[in-house]
Amino acid sequence: MDKEYEPLFETVPLPNGAELRNRFVLAPLTHVTSNDDGTASDAEVEYLEKRAQDAGLALSAATNVTDLGKSFPGQPSIAHESDIESQRRVAHALKKNGAKAILQIHHGGVQALPRLTPNGDSAGPSPMTIQSFDETEAHNAREISEDEIQETIKAFGEATRRAIEAGFDGVEIHGANHYIIHQFVSPHFNQRTDQWGEDRYLFAMEIVDEVVRTAAHYADENFIIGYRFSPDEPQNPGINMEITEEFLGKLTEHPLDYLHASLGQLHSETRIGKYQGIERIELLHKWIDGRMPLVGIGSIFTPDEALEGIESGNIELLALGRALLLDHNFINKIKDGKTDEIINTFDPDRTDKHELPDPLWQQLNKGFYPLPRKDSQKQ
Ligand SMILES: Cc1cc2nc3c(=O)[nH]c(=O)nc-3n(C[C@H](O)[C@H](O)[C@H](O)COP(=O)(O)O)c2cc1C
Question: Which atom of ligand 1 is nearest to the CA of 176?
Answer without folding.
Answer: 11
